[in-house]
Amino acid sequence: MKISTKGRYALRLMVDLAEHQNGDPVPLKEVAERQEISSKYAESIMAILSKGDLVIAERGKSGGYRLSRDPSSYTVGEILTLTEGSLHPVACLEEGARCPREGNCRTLAMWQRLDRMLAEFFNGVTIEDLIEKEDWSDYVI
Amino acid sequence: MKISTKGRYALRLMVDLAEHQNGDPVPLKEVAERQEISSKYAESIMAILSKGDLVIAERGKSGGYRLSRDPSSYTVGEILTLTEGSLHPVACLEEGARCPREGNCRTLAMWQRLDRMLAEFFNGVTIEDLIEKEDWSDYVI
DNA sequence: ACAATTACCTACCAATCCAGTAGGAAAAAA
DNA sequence: TTTTTTCCTACTGGATTGGTAGGTAATTGT
């Protein structure tokens, strides 16, 4: 039950791009240094974000990455789904998965409830929220 | 971001024990068969529950396992914590972990909020709930 | 034109976790 | 004393995690 570094770092890379956007693309090296993530590892994560069209890459000198949309339009859910593969907390709720015992499983309903709760949480938080929001103590989904 | 089979099966073993308690200990073989879990694997999971004092084991003929307390007193949270090791969704929130970047991490507060939400969810559901509760659609933590 | 800078690509690695399985020893009751 | 049960140690193949290494392709500033 853990979000891996890949997903966590992806969020930080996205936040960093959002905070440092000025029209020009931001080189990965700068982002990685600010976030204290090895640039090689950051590179492999940024590649996922780029292939998923969450960021736009520009090669060559004075190239780098930039967000493709407004920070407020990115949800934490979509970033984590892309990098982690899925946000379902149990295998039985995976896309296309069907448990043969689902008819008499006493735990399935609880997992479904949790699944919905997580989806609502993750899809309710945006990159902009991560930057702006100071106090999360009263945040309710 | 997955609860492993160990945790999921542990819940089902506990529910099965709760549903079939009649004063006598229930042999693991029966539980495993009903739950369609290989008895060898079920054995290794039950050993964890036994060492954690969530169930009482009785050896020898006519032995087996029984719950040590009332089903309503077991929370899903304690069972998963025992079997999964922890329920914290990110490594930075682990017991004793301290991230050196915590002062300027834009994601920490969100993780803390999620952590609290998960704890409240898991500690709010009991084995009895798993057996009794039909409709979870309106369940709120 | 060319050197510098950037993203892109393939391949590799050690360590850990996952989901079990195998084979017996110890305890207790019938 | 046989049978039934839990308990214990060890093993395993495969996947995932958290990276690293080294080179290729594109683009631009000089």
Q: Could you explain the architecture of this structure?
A:
- The structure is a homodimer of 141-residue chains.
- Chain A is mainly α.
- Chain A has a domain at 1-86 and 126-133: Arc Repressor Mutant, subunit A (Orthogonal Bundle).
- Chain A has six helices and two strands, in the order αααββααα.
- The first copy, chain A, has helices at 5-19, 28-35, 39-51, 76-84, 108-124, 127-132, and strands at residues 55-58, 64-67.
- In chain A, strands 1-2 form a two-stranded antiparallel ribbon.
- In chain A, helix 1 (5-19) packs across helix 2 (28-35), helix 1 packs across helix 4 (76-84) and helix 4 crosses helix 5.
- Chain A binds a DNA duplex (30 and 30 nucleotides) through helix 3.
